[in-house]
Design brief:
32% of the residues lie in helices and 26% in strands. With 208 residues, the protein is an alpha+beta fold.
Length: 208
């Protein structure tokens, strides 16, 4: 599954509980998904077909990246076999009524309308932050079946500028920084997509 997440994270680029995982060598903090709305019985939707719309994105991201995030969620849902069919629906929408109509035209039972509320890549010292909300709507009734939000951030690893530390560094060899690793935001989005998929599958807790 880690290999799958890495590949899907690359697709995005081309198109609070503490976590032990790291991004760019700096520990990240991943809040558990906050579930505002959920069905009484999650297994009642196992045979549902789902259409994933392009994710709404902030100004610092492009529509193509919103399509990439939609593809990410689609592929992770397919890999976990939560629903009978999951497909991507490339349709523009500005409100939930238009999203529902797009789902009906696509002939799906549920339509996923997601939004990246903010996404900051950060710098070499950290600072990446992502906040995502996802709504799964019954295309027939127009009712929201699931509404989930999740955030993930990478604290800035500020250097110690104290007098003693600066004095010690003056007598030490210069620190050699590690080569840059994969960008943080795509990795964070992949982990959030995986967590939310577990929620749709009925999980009460997600892995850290």
């Amino acid at each position: 599954m880690r290999m799958v997440l890495a590949v899907l994270a690359g697709m995005i680029l081309s198109g609070c509980a503490s976590s032990n995982s790291t991004l760019s060598g700096i520990p990240t903090q991943k809040a558990a998904p906050i579930v505002y709305i959920h069905p009484m019985e999650t297994d009642s939707y196992q045979r549902a077909t789902v259409g994933v719309l392009p994710f709404k994105v902030p100004d610092n991201m492009s529509r193509e990246q919103g399509l990439g995030v939609a593809a990410l969620f689609k592929d992770i849902l397919l890999s976990k076999q939560i629903f009978r069919t999951v497909k991507q629906v490339d349709a523009s929408y500005s409100n939930m009524d238009m999203a529902i109509e797009a789902g009906r035209k696509a002939g799906v039972d549920l339509v996923m309308a997601g939004k990246i509320n903010y996404a900051f890549e950060g710098v070499e010292l950290g600072g990446a932050r992502v906040d995502v909300s996802v709504r799964l709507i019954n295309a027939g009734t127009g009712n929201t079946v699931w509404y989930v939000e999740q955030t993930m951030n990478q604290p800035v690893d500020y250097p110690d500028l104290g007098f003693v530390n600066r004095l010690l560094e003056s007598f030490s060899r210069p620190t050699v920084r590690k080569a840059a690793e994969a960008p943080s935001v795509p990795n964070m989005l992949a982990r959030i997509a995986f967590d939310m998929a577990e929620v749709f599958d009925g999980a009460r807790t997600v892995s850290r």
